[in-house]
Amino acid sequence: MIREPRAVRAPALLLLCLLAVTSCSQIEEPVVTMTGVDFRGISTEGLAFKLLMDVENPNGFGADISELEYQVSLDNMEVATGLQKDPVAVPAKSTVEVGIPFTIVWSGIDDGLKKFLDGEEHEWRLKGSVRLSKGAMSHVFRFSENGTYDAPRANDIEFDLDL
């Protein structure tokens, strides 16, 4: 049996650690874009939705989104928060859609609902963080985007219920 001297193993281990650290600095930041909201239903807790986000991996290697956290504000009032911890695979140089469930609770919904249906222009902001992981390596990236939208008027909304 051939044994490696400790003097050889230590520099090899140090080189391996150095390569791992420098490879992390080469990770390009993922691009997170809010694409929409799906209405999921009504419960005793409130209105259930799913926030839809596209996450683009610009890197030449596949990775996992191991955590995605977000906050959505409407006119500087926080209306939704969420945390996705189920891993989502993102192949190299591709985009995946991530859906994160959230509920707008009944208490305090009056003010928020009025803004959603007042026919006025409102500012929105999406901010959060995404953890991109590849094997034992992971890196957290922060994201933020904002914009405006024109809310519909409550009088313009029609419901067609088939009973």
Task: Explain what the structure shows.
The protein is α+β, with helices and mostly antiparallel strands and 163 residues long. It has one domain (29-156): Immunoglobulin-like, CATH 2.60.40.10. It has two helices and eight strands. The strands form two sheets. Strands 3, 4, 5, 7 and 8 form a five-stranded antiparallel beta sheet that branches. Strands 1-2-6 form a three-stranded antiparallel beta sheet, with no helix packed on it. A hairpin with a 3-residue loop joins strand 1 (31-42) and strand 2 (46-57). The longest helix is centred in the N-terminal third of the chain and has 19 residues, at 6-24.
Describe the secondary structure blueprint for this structure.
Elements (H helix, E strand, L loop, with lengths): L5 H19 L6 E12 L3 E12 L5 E12 L2 E8 L3 E3 L3 E12 L3 H8 L4 E14 L2 E14 L13
Antiparallel strand pairs: 1-2, 2-6, 3-4, 3-5, 3-7, 7-8
